[in-house]
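Feature request, filed as a ticket because there's no other form

It would be nice if the structure record came with a short human-readable summary line next to the tokens. Right now we just get the raw output. Example of a typical job, pasted below so the devs can see what we mean:
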Amino acid sequence: MITKFSVSNFKGFNESFVFDLQKTNGYEFNTESIKNGVVNHAIIYGRNGVGKSNLGLAMFDIVRHLTDKQREEEQYQNYLNGFNDLSTANFQYEFLIDSNIINYNYQKNDVGVIVSEKFSINGKVLAKIDRKIGNQADINFKGTETLNKELTNENLSLLNYIKNNAQLENNKEKEILYNFFNFIDKMLFFKSLDSNMYLGLEIGNKDVFEDIIEKDNINDLERFLNTAGIECELIAIDQLPGKTIAFHFNYGQIIPFSLIASTGTISLVIFYFWLQRLKEKSTVSFVFIDEFDAFYHHELSRLIVEELKKTGAQFVLTTHNTSIISNDLLRPDCYFLMNKNSIKSLAKSTPKELREAHNIEKMYKAGSFHV
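Raw output as currently delivered:
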């Protein structure tokens, strides 16, 4: 799990911006939204332009240099903050993996250029390099004694270098390192405002409809859409260069899905496409969905959150939809209020003791919470 993240001098984040998922309250309802004392299900609110999308991009910067998964380089243009005169963006992650605390900090001056890197397990520093001082790495994993520690390639991650070149001793530290890499490999960021843009988890762009057909999920998609209030019957049809999904109407009329489906319905199909990955056991470790319900009715937004809760994956959603701020769905320490400088849960944004019976949406609209 990601337990804490901070970033500075990246895009809209000038000073250190800290997203702490460990500051929970002892509520005795919706306990499944907290895991090992960490927020497992989070929803972020904030005005337009405060940086909700950039927070997701910042958290997924790690995918760029530790994996070969989907990267979408254009999302990382204008990398450094325009108001900051420092030469590097700073990223600090804290993870809880198999009851171990992993800290991973690094600095970059561009999306592919790593200036410094530091990795520790339970407070023990096992790898670090600071190219502002020199190219000599300090590596303390057992099995790296004869490994060349001079790293001149500033595009190469020290951790990747160790993982791919060292014969590490089979011990607990090696196991934790590999579990850490496994977690990063399974992180997923996506949004469906314009297209099926995503970061992490997979490689390349797949046709959503062809993927659903290949996985024999047309009937399940039909069920999902009907549950969401979109009454339809779906079939697969040939359409060069492959197959696609179509609506099947009475009297045999068939119309390709993309020709008549609304923006909201297409967005819902994209969500379904990723939901199938989330439902596959151990496929996704952490998911960040930006503007997850931009085209949805409020009842559908609630359904989506309920579907995500069933997967068990740690997730963070951004939205402007206040109708789902409810203790029936999550709890006050799982809803976060964000501005340009900070982010806090609703539970930490008021001196008032919040209870299950409180109407926290009404309180939110009345301005009871302050970051």
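Something like this underneath would help us a lot:
The first helix runs from residue 52 to 59.
The mean pLDDT is 94.
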